[in-house]
Amino acid sequence: MKQKVVNLIEIGIQDIYGISLPDTECYIEIPSNIELGDFSLPCFTLAKMLKKSPKIIAEELCTHLKDNNNDSMISDVKAVNGYLNIFIDRIYFINQIIADVFNVSYGSSDIGSGKTICMDYSSPNIAKNFHVGHLRTTLIGNSFSKIYSKLGYKVVRINHLGDWGTQFGKLIVAYKKWSNKKMVEENGIEELLRIYIQFGHEAEKSPALNDEARDWFAKMENGDEEALSIWQWFKDISLIEYERVYTMLNIEFDSYVGESFYMDKVPALVSELKDKKLLVESQGANIISLDEYGMSPCLITKKDGSSIYHSRDIAAALYRKQTYNFEKCIYVTGMEQKLHFSQVFKAIELMGYEWANDLYHIPYGLVSMDGEKLSTRKGNIIYAEDILNEAVSRALNAIQEKNPDLKDKINTAKKIGIGAVIFHDLSNQLIRDVHFKWDDVLNFDGMTAPYIQYTYARSKSILRKSHIDNTDVDLTYLTDDISYELVKKLALYPDIVKDAAVKFEPCIIARYAYTLSNLFNKFYHECRILSADDQIRKSRIVLVNAVQKVISDSMSLLGIECPEEM
Ligand code: ARG
């Protein structure tokens, strides 16, 4: 519908002034006050282009649209202080939007068709635990992947595992000295963490251990069989643990190609950098100087010639561009890696690759749990798995209390608990820190997943009782203001999805799902639905059906499932 309005305005401008307003769509506003119309065009940009007052332009366009209005869509047009306000016929609008909503692909678009996005997210470090920070990148990256897929992009979900680096040399030394096969098999990552920490303590006393570790890492870089088989084993063990978290979250990746894959691509990078006269030797290491850009240098190879996080990332970007020819490559990590990505992107730009502009680092704030308790494990590391399990068990308690007769308690608790954690992470701007308080996260009232899920379950329950499943109903009875407001809210959904993608902010969708739910609950409390007169009842049920569809679709873009009953 917005597109139709845009077309009419564009034709009007062309007819009267013989010019075209570039990107007309961007200028069209949706007034929050219903009295100012359904769509509004501020005429100030046109005023500058035409050197004419916005007030006069609005009036001229208004007269033109009125004279040429042979469409039942527009019920009125007004010119107010330089704004052209367009009123859409309510019934026309309602019919159109409801029909759109029941179209399978409502909210989708083809703006991404034929284009690829590489989404680099989650990317935990092998042999280290999957903590709340990694949980955040996982949830954010998953949501982006869903949002961009909805917009028609092909998304390549990449788990850029931290599976290479000197730490593996340390681990091999520590394993040989203070652990054994059985201990690792029994305790998994916990054992790897334990020996890694022990290595730190021991190396303080005997620094020669560091040389041993460097030697083992050098062996790895040179393809030594023993070193690589221990490394692969540690990797397999770690992945089993990470997979548990991914399964709980229902998250999959297209690629688990991590840092190790790029190790042998660094020599080619080094020669390219040399050819392009970008490489400088500094104390035996190879660097790219970024002084000019106010950044510390980007390290490419260390003294012993081995690759490093930065060079592996540059090699990865080159490889991805070549393999996927991405339109955008998006990296989701904590704020602390801002400099790292600035250096990497700058290096790629200096190499002469214009597509350096298509690389985006999306940083996010810290997660803290001050004063909150988790029931398992000790220490100050917050494990993602523990948080998810705790959320599920708390959700289960809430269900026992509120609805002890519910059929599928365990699965419902999973959806509620995990959904609550996801929503809590995604409902604020990414850059903001997240403070974790169970009472907030699992609150059934407020801007939370359980509140929205409850609203969804409520709508489903109405639908079950209504025994109407066709949507082919006369909607002329949906004339009250709240119903109309709800339909207008539903109409915003496609723009909300696009906005979240363009601004890299899933919270735009989270907040939308919340306000839609709020409005629905207002409708539910103020309008009779099942007990209304026949025609009104039918049309309201169709509206309920449309709302539940958009609630669950918007939540799914965040990676959250809505239970049918709760
Ligand atoms: N493994 C890194 C970490 O845990 C994140 C990797 C992000 N992706 C990348 N291409 N550097 O901090």
From TrEMBL:
<dbReference type="InterPro" id="IPR036695">
    <property type="entry name" value="Arg-tRNA-synth_N_sf"/>
</dbReference>
<dbReference type="Pfam" id="PF05746">
    <property type="entry name" value="DALR_1"/>
</dbReference>
<dbReference type="InterPro" id="IPR008909">
    <property type="entry name" value="DALR_anticod-bd"/>
</dbReference>
<dbReference type="InterPro" id="IPR009080">
    <property type="entry name" value="tRNAsynth_Ia_anticodon-bd"/>
</dbReference>
<feature type="short sequence motif" description="'HIGH' region">
    <location>
        <begin position="124"/>
        <end position="134"/>
    </location>
</feature>
<dbReference type="GO" id="GO:0004814">
    <property type="term" value="F:arginine-tRNA ligase activity"/>
</dbReference>
<dbReference type="InterPro" id="IPR014729">
    <property type="entry name" value="Rossmann-like_a/b/a_fold"/>
</dbReference>
<dbReference type="GO" id="GO:0005524">
    <property type="term" value="F:ATP binding"/>
</dbReference>
<comment type="subunit">
    <text>Monomer.</text>
</comment>
<dbReference type="Pfam" id="PF00750">
    <property type="entry name" value="tRNA-synt_1d"/>
</dbReference>
<keyword id="KW-0030">Aminoacyl-tRNA synthetase</keyword>
<keyword id="KW-0963">Cytoplasm</keyword>
<keyword id="KW-0648">Protein biosynthesis</keyword>
<dbReference type="GO" id="GO:0005737">
    <property type="term" value="C:cytoplasm"/>
</dbReference>
<keyword id="KW-0067">ATP-binding</keyword>
<protein>
    <recommendedName>
        <fullName>Arginine--tRNA ligase</fullName>
        <ecNumber>6.1.1.19</ecNumber>
    </recommendedName>
</protein>
<keyword id="KW-0547">Nucleotide-binding</keyword>
<comment type="similarity">
    <text>Belongs to the class-I aminoacyl-tRNA synthetase family.</text>
</comment>
<keyword id="KW-0436">Ligase</keyword>
<dbReference type="InterPro" id="IPR005148">
    <property type="entry name" value="Arg-tRNA-synth_N"/>
</dbReference>
<dbReference type="GO" id="GO:0006420">
    <property type="term" value="P:arginyl-tRNA aminoacylation"/>
</dbReference>
<dbReference type="InterPro" id="IPR001278">
    <property type="entry name" value="Arg-tRNA-ligase"/>
</dbReference>
<dbReference type="InterPro" id="IPR035684">
    <property type="entry name" value="ArgRS_core"/>
</dbReference>
<dbReference type="InterPro" id="IPR001412">
    <property type="entry name" value="aa-tRNA-synth_I_CS"/>
</dbReference>
<dbReference type="Pfam" id="PF03485">
    <property type="entry name" value="Arg_tRNA_synt_N"/>
</dbReference>
